[in-house]
Design brief:
alpha/beta; Rossmann fold; UDP-galactose 4-epimerase, domain 1; 7-stranded parallel beta sheet; 4-stranded mixed beta sheet; 11 helices; 15 strands; binds NADP nicotinamide-adenine-dinucleotide phosphate; binds ligand G4F
């Protein structure tokens, strides 16, 4: 039987690296869009490239001609759009680039994918950031309240190219509205990975102190491996629908720091408030965490917690990792990484 073809964007990112093995195991012919000069690729993607398990196509969501030519050639049965300018802070600094990739990029991709195959199934990586400061718990019915150019670009992309194409053309286009999900493959600029990598360096005496922004921000953190499983399930359904994917449990950035630090035998005592807050190592008295207002955002999403009841009941999806599993896996992995990188 002919293999089904899937086209993945953002394969070099955290989620792409976890989704790709699922697609290969399910028997798909996997095609991927990669930029000529992208960031560092997770090792797993380099391995898949070397083993020729994935067919790479060079292009960008910002370039219609490359997308058009690639999609004409591939004619995919399914598309996962994971590519994005995904960093919220960067979106305040580069709003035009953010919109070009996240909004217009999805528009280009959806139009071209539907042109070459009107029956194509499309997954869009939407986000809890679209809910902004709408009251928690947030579900598929919660109104959007985007607080950043990133969140605005994602909310409009979802409305115009997923909901609208579904309603007006009957397209099989769905959004996974995913809450924060982490792993050892998370980019080092996101808060969880910044914390685990910095604490590992502090524990080895390679860094004095971890500087952070808003310690009071609360996020609903899950594991990327659990969340990409949900993406796959969404495209296997009979009807195209959007789903919230979340753990339903929330923690502050301060909690994450405390729990991760305990792994390294550091118990933190907090002093002061807001921009003057510091965290000392209870045993040595040394300052290990400092608030640096440079890392505050122009607008913040203060508290998020998802309600994934629909995914539980309709998809049968349940997360396998607990919050403490995630923190433990990340700290262990960064401890090893620091050992390797610094040849300790
Ligand atoms: P990530 O690690 O930042 O990966 C982003 C990917 O997008 C990278 O592969 C990057 O490629 C690619 N990319 C950026 N600009 C591109 C362009 N112009 N053309 C083609 N590819 C481009 O993100 P992630 O954490 O895996 O997240 C995957 C998706 O889910 C993103 O859309 C994100 O917005 C969304 N999301 C993430 C979370 C989360 O908590 N992780 C939650 C909700 C939604 P390079 O390697 O070339 O830079
Ligand atoms: O880890 P973050 O940068 O993730 P954020 O902004 O929630 O966005 C991530 O999750 C979204 C899903 O909700 C995705 F759509 C998006 O693509 C991305 O993957 O920041 C988390 C919280 C924020 O409230 C931030 O203010 O941590 C706070 N924070 C405190 N100090 C910090 C820092 N964030 C970063 N990145 N760096 C800090 O030093």
């Amino acid at each position: 039987m002919k293999k089904k073809k899937v086209f993945v964007t953002g394969i070099t990112g955290q989620d792409g690296s976890y989704l790709t093995p699922i697609l290969l195991d399910a028997g798909y012919e996997v095609h991927a869009l990669v930029r000529l000069r992208g960031g560092d690729r997770p090792v797993i993607i380099d391995d898949l490239a070397r083993e020729k398990k994935v067919i790479f196509h060079t292009g960008s969501l910002t370039d219609l001609s490359s997308l058009s030519t690639i999609l004409e050639g591939v004619r995919p049965d399914e598309v996962y759009n994971l590519a994005a300018q995904s960093h919220v802070v960067s979106s305040f600094k580069s709003p035009v680039e953010t919109w070009d990739v996240n909004y217009y990029g999805l528009g280009r991709l959806v139009n071209e994918a539907l042109r070459v195959n009107p029956d194509v199934r499309i997954y869009q990586a939407s986000t809890s950031e679209m809910f902004g400061n709408s009251p928690a718990p947030q579900s598929e019915n919660t109104p959007f309240d985007p607080q950043s150019p990133y969140a605005m670009s994602k909310a409009m992309a979802h409305t115009d190219f997923i909901m609208h194409k579904r309603a007006s053309m009957g397209a099989f286009a769905v959004s996974g509205i995913l809450f924060n999900h982490e792993s050892p493959r998370r980019g080092r600029d996101f808060v969880t990975r910044k914390i685990t990598f910095s604490l590992a360096k502090i524990a080895f005496g390679l860094q004095e102190c971890l500087e952070l922004g808003n310690l009071n921000a609360v996020r609903d953190w899950g594991h990327a491996e659990d969340y990409v499983r949900a993406m796959f399930m969404m495209l296997q359904q009979d009807t195209p629908e959007d789903y919230v994917i979340a753990s339903g449990e929330s923690h502050s950035v301060r909690d994450f720091v405390e729990i991760a630090a305990q792994y390294f035998g550091i118990n933190i005592a907090w002093e002061g408030e807001g921009k003057a807050e510091i965290g000392r190592n209870k045993m040595t008295g040394k300052i290990v965490v400092k608030v640096n207002p440079e890392f505050y955002r122009p607008r913040e999403v203060n508290f998020i917690q998802g309600d994934a009841t629909k995914a539980h009941t309709k998809l049968g999806w349940k997360p396998r990792y607990s919050f403490s599993d995630i923190v433990t896996e990340m700290v262990k992995s960064d401890q090893e990484l620091v050992r390797r990188e610094y040849k300790l």
